[in-house]
Amino acid sequence: MAKSQLPDAVLVDKYISGDENALAILVNRHQSKIYGYIYSKVLDRDITEDIFQETFFKVIHTLKSRKYYNEEGKFLSWVLRIASNLIIDKFRSDKKMPMNRDTDELSVFARITDDSLNAERKLIKNQVEVDIKTIIEKLPHDQKEVIMMRYYLDMSFKEIADYTGVSVNTTLGRMRYAITNMRKVIEKNKIYLPS
């Protein structure tokens, strides 16, 4: 099996044993999810870069110390917890940084970079985003969380289960209920979402 296909837990063990390339594989495997998670909370590229780097300084330090990592293969959820703690620390220490709780929203169009949108399409896009935010806000917290992680952070159901500390079946159930509840809100409020 190629090293790039090894499970996270094996790569962590290899890194702790001195294989520096194992950490590079882990970083490459998860960097977009971790970066996306941080950015979704702070909405600033420079701060995201700083926290992303600091997160991996802590990861390296902890793994090299060989005493604080016992996540049983849940590497991504462990790193996301580190990032989350650093984000909270940043909010607490930097009074200039706005404590905007709206950063938890799901921005469906966050990855769209089509500059050719005409004025009408931009208006429709903005209205759809507002409507979707309204729908998601009406969901219970656990359902909102799984929607955000699945569609915004592109996390697998296993990763979401690991991060939230529930089973994969519970995660799938929350997703199913979230979609059902979103459909009910759309029908009840007669919201039109163009495809």
Detailed description of the structure:
It comes from Flavobacterium cheonhonense. Residues 26-95 form the RNA polymerase sigma-70 region domain. This protein is mainly α. The protein has 2 domains: 1-104, RNA polymerase sigma factor, region 2, helix turn helix motif (Rna Polymerase Sigma Factor, Chain: A, Orthogonal Bundle), CATH 1.10.1740; 105-195, Winged helix-like DNA-binding domain superfamily/Winged helix DNA-binding domain (Arc Repressor Mutant, subunit A, Orthogonal Bundle). It has 8 helices and no strands. Helix 2 packs across helix 4 (75-93). It is globular. The model is unreliable at 96-116 (pLDDT under 50).
Report the β-strand fraction as a percent range. Answer: under 5%
Largest sheet: none
**What is the domain tally?**
2
> What is the number of strand segments?
0
Layout of strands and helices, then pairs:
Blueprint: H1 8-16, H2 20-42, H3 45-65, H4 75-93, H5 119-137, H6 141-152, H7 157-164, H8 168-188
Helix pairs in contact: 1-2, 2-3, 2-4, 3-4, 4-7, 6-8, 7-8
